[in-house]
Amino acid sequence: MMTKRTGYGSASEVPVFVLGMPRSGTTLTEQICVSHPDVHGAGELTKLRRITNRLAPRTRSPEELWKSILEM
C-alpha cells in the first residue's frame, strides 16, 4: 500500500501552524499529526493571541485587524 505512495509529501522543514477557533477540532488535528515520529506538537501557543490583543485596540474593524496582521 505505501509503496505506490513513494515520493508523496513534502521534504520541507517549514513549520506548520494549526489555527482555529475554540472547540473547532484543532487539538484533535494536532494529536493526529503528532502521532507521526517526525512531528512535534507545541500545544496551545498564546503569542498570537497576545499580538492580536495588542493590535485590536488600534483597529476599527475586522478588516483593519486582518490588514495589520498581514503587514507583520
Give the arrangement of secondary structure elements:
Elements: H1 26-34, H2 47-55, H3 62-70
Number of strands: 0
Biggest β-sheet description = none
Order of helices and strands: HHH
| Number of H- or I-type helical stretches | 3
Structure classification: mainly alpha
User: Could you say which overall geometry the principal axes of the C-alpha atoms support?
Assistant: elongated
Content of β-strand? under 5%
The residue fraction in helices comes out at: 25-40%
Span of the ends, CA to CA: 43 Å
> How large is the radius of gyration?
17 Å
Spans of 5+ residues with little confidence (pLDDT < 50)? none
Describe the model.
- With 72 residues, this protein is mainly α.
- The protein is built from 3 helices and no strands.
- The chain has helices at residues 26-34, 47-55, 62-70.
- The relative contact order is 0.08.
- The model has no long low-confidence stretch (mean pLDDT 81).
